[in-house]
Design brief:
Blueprint lengths: L3 E7 L7 H11 L4 E7 L5 H9 L5 E4 L13 E2 L1 H6 L4 E4 L5 E4 L2 H8 L11 E5 L5 H10 L4 E6 L2 H10 L4 E4 L3 H4 L5 E4 L23 E4 L8 H8 L3 E3 L2 H16 L7 H9 L2
Parallel strand pairs: 1-2, 1-3, 4-6, 7-8, 7-10, 8-9, 10-11, 11-12
Antiparallel strand pairs: 3-5, 5-6
C-alpha cells in the first residue's frame, strides 16, 4: 500500500514545525504516512491543491499568506472556514468533495481563551488583519468577550473584516501605542516577531498590569515583545499551544484519530525552537 503524503504550504515556510508535529503522531499511531514542507508561490497554489484530487496528497495545511487565497481552489468551505472565510486545512471528504476547513478557531479557544477568567468582561485588541485574524475574531465572538477592536497597518484590510464582523471597532495604526493601555487582552495576529523577520519598533509600555498578551507566533518561542512583557510580569502566551491544538484537529480530520498531546511531543517541539 502506498505511503500517504501530507504537506503544509506557505511563504515563508522554513519556520514551520508542522512536519515535526504530524510525523511524531504518524509514528506514534503506526500510520504509514509522511508530512513535508512545500514552499509555495501564489501561481502554483492550484496545481498543489489538485494533488489532493489526484490522491498524490491526502491533505494540506495552509499558513501565511494563503489562508484566503486557497479558497477559490476548493469545492466547499465547511464549519469554521465558512464562517471566517479562512482556510488552514484541506481534504477530500467521503463524497470526493474537496473541502476547506479552519482549525485555528479551535486552536485559539483550546489553547488560551478557556484559560482566561471572566472573559466575557474583557476588551480585546487584535493587532493585524491578515490570514489568522478572522479566526481570532470568530473565536473571541464565540467566547462572548465584551469588545473586540482591530488595528492594522493597512486600514482597508480592517474595514474589510468589519464587513464580515460588524461588531468590530476599527482603529488606525498611528494610534497603536496610545491605545495599548485601554485593553485587557492584546493578541498579535501579525507576522511581526517571526524568526528572522521584523518585530514591533516600540516597547509595549503603559499596558495594564493585569493584561493578557497572546502571540500567535511560536517560532521563536519568545518574540522580543513577549519577552519584554514577560519580564514586566505580564501574563503571556506564545503561539505554540495554539499551533499544537490546531494541528491536533487537522490530524483528526484526516485520520479520524484524536492524537494525544504528551510531554514528549511538547519537549520535541521546544527542542526545535
Amino acid at each position: 500500500m502506498k505511503k500517504k503524503s501530507y504537506a503544509i504550504i506557505g511563504d515563508p515556510i522554513t519556520h514551520s514545525l508542522s512536519p515535526t508535529l504530524h510525523n511524531y503522531w504518524f509514528e506514534k499511531y503506526g500510520l504509514d504516512a509522511n508530512y513535508s514542507l512545500v514552499h509555495a508561490k501564489e501561481d502554483n497554489l492550484e496545481s498543489i491543491i489538485k494533488k489532493i484530487r489526484n490522491k498524490e496528497l491526502e491533505g494540506i495545511n495552509v499558513t501565511l499568506p494563503y489562508k484566503q487565497k486557497v479558497i477559490k481552489f476548493v469545492d466547499q468551505l465547511i464549519n469554521d472556514a465558512r464562517l471566517t472565510n479562512s482556510v488552514n486545512t484541506i481534504l477530500l471528504d467521503h463524497k470526493g468533495i474537496l473541502v476547506g476547513e479552519n482549525t485555528d478557531v479551535f486552536g485559539l479557544q483550546a489553547a488560551y481563551l478557556k484559560e482566561i477568567t471572566n472573559i466575557e468582561n474583557k476588551e480585546v485588541l487584535i493587532i493585524g488583519a491578515g490570514g489568522v485574524s478572522p479566526s481570532v475574531i470568530f473565536a473571541l465572538q464565540k467566547s462572548k468577550v465584551k469588545k473586540v477592536s482591530i488595528i492594522n497597518r493597512t486600514f482597508d484590510k480592517s474595514l474589510f473584516l468589519k464587513k464580515k464582523f460588524n461588531f468590530l471597532s476599527v482603529l488606525k495604526w498611528e494610534h497603536l501605542e496610545q491605545e495599548l493601555s485601554n485593553y485587557d487582552i492584546i493578541i498579535n495576529a501579525t507576522s511581526l516577531g517571526l524568526k528572522n523577520g521584523q518585530d514591533f519598533n516600540f516597547n509595549f509600555e503603559g499596558v495594564k498590569n493585569d493584561l493578557v498578551y497572546i502571540d500567535t507566533i511560536y517560532n521563536p518561542i519568545e518574540t522580543k515583545t513577549l519577552k519584554f512583557l514577560k519580564e514586566k510580569e505580564i501574563k503571556t502566551f506564545n503561539g505554540l499551544d495554539m499551533f499544537i491544538y490546531q494541528g491536533q484537529k487537522s490530524f483528526y480530520l484526516w485520520n479520524k484519530i484524536n492524537p494525544e498531546i504528551d510531554d514528549e511531543l511538547i519537549n520535541l517541539l521546544r527542542s526545535k525552537l
